């Protein structure tokens, strides 16, 4: 089954481009470290998921590019085509001249309705190219006007037009010390709307990725391109083919559906975080070796202590001991810094994945007490190594600690209940749209 | 001849003049004949005539000019009421024509001075017209404010009358003071003439140079100063013309920097002022560029933003500067700057990968800062000195449509504006009050 990617705004388009680069590079790389047959299946599964076979020498990405100003899209299209490995469909894009001015309302209430037909037409065309459509993967930032506002509108349209398809929104949380002054408004508005139409929201924070670039990748002068490449690598590690069942015979057919099933047991909890290890500069890869137990241990502690990278993890944080806890999701027995999960998914790629012990992730104390840890935890594997990393582990988690929630406090919104408080904002928006 | 591209098309049309006269617009391909998307308005002919005889004569054509003979006599009322009424039709007609040639009209730049009669009076009349005829298009105004030693006696009247119009009809104003421009020009001259060993300034890198022009000797006294303003405007529209990893468009500037509609006066600064020809640029220089942007002597008005209160600040960087450089410098400079309590993280940033001519990188800072207040207070004081004596008032009042109330309303508008800045300043350094949290029933 295939995924159609919708790239929205400058951020969405820049990242989307890097994602397809990573996926394509991974597939064509010679570091699969597995049998030819395995590699072949991997290649086929990936192709079906992300690229369509048309009368062109290179695979064509299943994507729709949308922006309210032309420069980014035209750059993205041409750089992709120049790579010689893949390209975008020349017709699958829509842009205007004016931009959205960092104004969510402009994106949502003005550009959205105005261009709905054209955009949904493009999406429909891409969807029809798929033999079977798994769903949509949208990429946008929350700070700007197009990605955030138009993105929220488009997500709603996708939900209306494709009620049985899955929608996964990838949202970029801007740097704390802004890129955009009104980013808090834009972000709050975006999240409230997305929550209604989307199946899950996968969040990446610029600050976090920036730290990874600085401390793990050793990049001196970090550019947005560097940040986007790290994000793309992390996304690729989740979306490339895997076997979802132990002893499965073929690569999972329904990536988005499987993701939702494992990670979103309850519609109230849709926020997903992503951690991937190891991460290091490409030229260090050859000199490093890792053991699975080591990687698993680090990944688990990263989850528990809410660390986003493998350096600087607080090893003091421990899950509480069971038996003394009160059966409620807001257990007061849990130590303050502990990160309770609703669900976790570990994805392992590379050598010797069959022998890994993941018992530590099944520890019930990691999860809220209204869930059975057997259901809350899943593991997907493939022996096929990813993007030149001999071993790579990713953790997609639906858990408590959402580091950026403090941004909402300016608007007086509680952590656990931010969903409800958007109503007041909604009324303001409707009055503006009437103007 | 070069290629006509998006960057050029933001400011110029490409007209097919091969068959003589005005042909259709050419949208892509080679440059045939560039025409500025502009209107030149003056009530005396001298300046416009000079332009039409100079190297840019082909860029402007007669259909874009509105001139008269006798000037406005440094009288805002003559410019606004008399000529406004007289030329209204003509101006609207020509504006429409120019707008029609645009695929997508994003913004009007109004460039004028505040102290005279035409720029100030007719200029603000045009501003009103723009709002009436094109309500959805942004109006960016670059206003040259009179200095204390101005030789036009009535400049305080003209400026205050114009201020009311700017308060009410402009989306964004970039005030400029000649004194600051003059100081910057001097600074550069000193640098060139100081004869520091091994340091030669690249001629076309100076912020005072008209890039591309071969002459390094300025012929007219205001050329160097005006070029600074030209450079400013070019930098403001950079993202409309060139690519970058974080675009910052004009409408974003207004959206992010104007938290309340009347407080739309932005203090601007440009760095670096010049580039030394034989010096490689290590990271320290880059950081110096950021520090300079906040220093008093790089601002284009006599103001010190560091000691006043920021409502918001935008930084647009060009060249080989990455997001980490930007972040590092914001972190570094933040502690020494005062931001309003409700917008402590009030930074808007943009990155453009194309550097300006003669530099490897450059920075434009636009600040919505209470340091504009002294400029306005001084203006009000000079106005009151004249007004109390009713000096020169009769020249204004005998113009049709002009009444004493125009004056009192104008000074009132200015006073209100100053009061708004005062209220903000009063919050400076006070405790940060976090709004109370919304209580939700679980």
Comma- or semicolon-separated keywords:
heterodimer; A: 435 residues; alpha/beta; Rossmann fold; 2 domains; globular; disordered C terminus; B: alpha/beta; five-stranded mixed β-sheet
Task: Describe the overall structure.
Chain A: It is found in: Cell projection, Cilium; Cytoplasm, Cytoskeleton, Microtubule organizing center, Centrosome, Centriole; Nucleus. Chain A: Acts as a positive regulator of hedgehog signaling and regulates ciliary function. Chain A: This is Tubulin delta chain. Chain A: Pfam families: Tubulin. The complex is a heterodimer of chains A (435) and B (442). Chain A has helices at 9-28, 36-50, 70-83, 104-129, 146-161, 183-197, 206-216, 224-239, 255-263, 292-304, 373-376, 422-434; strands at 2-8, 51-52, 60-61, 63-67, 87-88, 93-95, 133-141, 166-173, 200-205, 271-277, 341-350, 377-382, 391-399. Residues 324-335, 402-421 and 424-435 of chain A have low confidence and may be disordered. In chain A, the strands form two sheets. A ten-stranded mixed β-sheet of chain A has the order 6-4-1-7-8-9-10-13-11-12, sandwiched between helices. Chain A is globular and about 55 Å long. In chain A, α5 (146-161) links the parallel β7 (133-141) and β8. Helix content of chain A is 40%, strand content 17%. Chain A is an alpha/beta fold. Chain A folds into two domains: 2-198, 3-Layer(aba) Sandwich (Rossmann fold); 282-321 and 336-410, Tubulin/FtsZ, C-terminal domain (60s Ribosomal Protein L30, Chain: A, 2-Layer Sandwich). By secondary structure, chain B is α/β, with parallel strands linked by helices. Among the domains of chain B are: 1-36, no CATH class; 377-427. Chain B has 14 helices and 14 strands. Chain B has helices spanning 6-9, 46-53, 76-100, 118-133, 155-169, 178-193, 223-236, 238-241, 250-257, 283-293, 323-333, 373-388, 393-397, 404-426, and strands spanning 3-4, 12-14, 29-30, 34-36, 40-42, 65-67, 107-113, 138-145, 172-177, 267-271, 309-319, 338-339, 347-352, 361-369. In chain B, strands 10, 11, 12, 13 and 14 form a five-stranded mixed β-sheet that branches. In chain B, β8 (138-145), α5 (155-169) and β9 (172-177) form a beta-alpha-beta unit. In chain B, α3 (76-100) packs across α4 (118-133), α6 (178-193) packs across α7 and α12 runs antiparallel to α14. In chain B, 41% of the residues are buried. The model of chain B is unreliable at 211-218 and 437-442 (pLDDT under 50). The A-B interface holds A 10, 14, 69-72, 75, 96-103, 145, 175-182, 210, 213-214, 219-227, 409-414, 416-417, 420-421, 424 and B 6, 103-104, 106, 243, 245-247, 249, 251-252, 254-257, 312, 322-325, 327, 330-331, 334, 342-343, 345-349, 351, 434-440, 442.
């Amino acid at each position: 089954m295939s995924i159609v990617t919708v790239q929205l705004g400058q951020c969405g388009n820049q990242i989307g481009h890097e994602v397809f680069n990573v996926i394509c590079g991974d597939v064509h790389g010679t570091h699969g470290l597995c049998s030819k047959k395995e590699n072949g299946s991997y290649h086929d599964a990936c192709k079906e998921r992300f690229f369509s076979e048309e009368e062109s020498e290179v695979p064509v990405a299943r994507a729709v590019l949308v922006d309210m100003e032309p420069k980014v899209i035209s750059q993205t299209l041409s750089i992709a085509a120049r790579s010689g490995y893949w390209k975008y469909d020349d017709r699958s894009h829509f842009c205007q001249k004016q931009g959205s001015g960092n104004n969510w309302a402009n994106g949502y209430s003005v550009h959205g309705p105005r261009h709905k037909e054209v955009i949904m037409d493009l999406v429909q065309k891409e969807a029809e190219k798929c033999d079977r459509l798994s769903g949509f993967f949208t990429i946008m930032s929350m700070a700007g006007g197009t990605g955030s506002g138009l993105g929220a509108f488009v997500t709603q349209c996708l939900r209306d037009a494709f009620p049985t398809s899955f929608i996964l929104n990838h949202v970029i949380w801007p740097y704390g010390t802004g890129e955009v002054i009104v980013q808090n408004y834009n972000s709050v508005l975006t999240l409230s709307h997305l929550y209604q139409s989307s199946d899950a929201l996968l969040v990446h924070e610029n600050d976090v990725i920036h730290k990874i670039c600085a401390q793990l990748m050793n990049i001196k002068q970090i550019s947005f391109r560097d940040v986007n490449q790290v994000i793309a690598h992390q996304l690729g590690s989740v979306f490339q083919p895997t076997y979802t069942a132990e002893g499965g015979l073929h690569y999972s057919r329904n990536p988005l559906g499987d993701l939702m099933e494992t990670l979103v047991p309850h519609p109230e909890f849709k926020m997903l975080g992503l951690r991937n290890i190891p991460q290091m500069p490409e030229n260090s890869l050859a000199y490093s070796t890792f053991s699975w137990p080591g990687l698993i241990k680090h990944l688990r502690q990263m989850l528990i202590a809410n660390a986003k990278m493998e350096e600087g993890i607080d090893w003091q944080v421990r899950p509480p001991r069971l038996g003394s806890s009160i059966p409620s999701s807001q257990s007061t027995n849990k130590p303050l810094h502990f990160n309770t999960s609703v669900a976790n998914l570990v994805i392992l790629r590379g050598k010797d994945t069959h022998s890994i012990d993941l018992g530590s992730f099944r520890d019930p104390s990691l999860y809220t007490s209204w869930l059975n840890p057997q259901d809350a935890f899943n593991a997907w594997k493939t022996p096929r190594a990813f993007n030149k990393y001999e071993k790579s582990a990713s953790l997609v988690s639906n858990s408590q600690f959402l580091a950026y929630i403090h941004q909402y406090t300016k608007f007086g919104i509680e952590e656990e209940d931010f969903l409800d408080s958007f109503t007041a904002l909604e009324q303001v928006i409707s009055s503006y749209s009437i103007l | 001849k070069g290629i006509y591209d998006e960057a050029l098309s933001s400011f110029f049309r490409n007209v097919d003049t091969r068959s003589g006269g005005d042909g259709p617009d050419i949208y892509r391909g080679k440059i045939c004949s560039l025409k500025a998307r502009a209107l030149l308005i003056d009530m005396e002919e001298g300046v416009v005539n000079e332009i039409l005889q100079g190297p840019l004569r082909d860029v402007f054509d007669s259909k874009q000019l509105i001139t008269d003979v006798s000037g406005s006599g440094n009288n805002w009322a003559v410019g606004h009421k008399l000529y406004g009424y007289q030329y209204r039709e003509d101006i609207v007609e020509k504006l429409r024509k120019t707008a029609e040639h645009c695929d997508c009209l994003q913004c009007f730049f109004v460039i004028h001075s505040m102290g005279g009669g035409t720029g100030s009076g007719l200029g603000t009349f045009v501003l009103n017209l723009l709002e009436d005829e094109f309500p959805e298009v942004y109006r960016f105004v670059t206003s040259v404010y009179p200095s204390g030693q101005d030789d036009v006696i009535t400049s305080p009247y003209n400026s205050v009358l114009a201020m009311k119009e700017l308060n009410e009809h402009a989306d964004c104003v970039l005030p400029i003071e000649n004194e600051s421009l003059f100081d910057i020009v001097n600074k550069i001259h000193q640098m060139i003439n100081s004869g520091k060993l091994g340091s030669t300034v690249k001629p076309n890198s100076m912020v005072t140079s008209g890039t591309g022009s071969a002459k390094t000797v300025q012929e007219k006294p205001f050329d160097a100063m005006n070029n600074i303003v030209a450079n400013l405007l070019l930098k403001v529209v950079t993202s409309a013309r060139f690519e970058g990893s974080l675009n910052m468009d004009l409408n974003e500037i207004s959206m992010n920097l104007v938290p309340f509609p009347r407080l739309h006066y932005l203090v601007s600064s440009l760095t670096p002022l010049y580039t030394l020809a034989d010096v490689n640029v290590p990271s320290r220089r880059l950081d110096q560029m950021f520090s300079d942007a906040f220093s008093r002597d790089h601002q284009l008005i006599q103001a010190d933003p560091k000691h006043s209160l920021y409502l918001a600040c935008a930084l647009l960087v060009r060249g080989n500067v990455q997001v980490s450089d930007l972040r590092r410098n914001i972190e570094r400079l933040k502690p020494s700057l005062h931001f309003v309590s409700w917008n402590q993280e009030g930074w808007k940033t943009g990155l453009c990968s194309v550097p300006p001519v003669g530099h490897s990188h450059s920075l434009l800072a636009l600040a919505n800062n209470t340091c504009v207040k002294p400029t306005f207070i001084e203006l009000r004081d000079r106005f009151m000195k004249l007004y109390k004596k009713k000096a020169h008032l009769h020249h204004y009042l005998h113009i049709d449509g002009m009444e004493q109330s125009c004056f009192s309303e104008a000074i009132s508008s200015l006073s209100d504006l100053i009061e708004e800045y005062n209220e903000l300043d009063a919050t400076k350094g006070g405790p940060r009050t976090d709004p109370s949290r919304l209580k939700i029933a679980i």
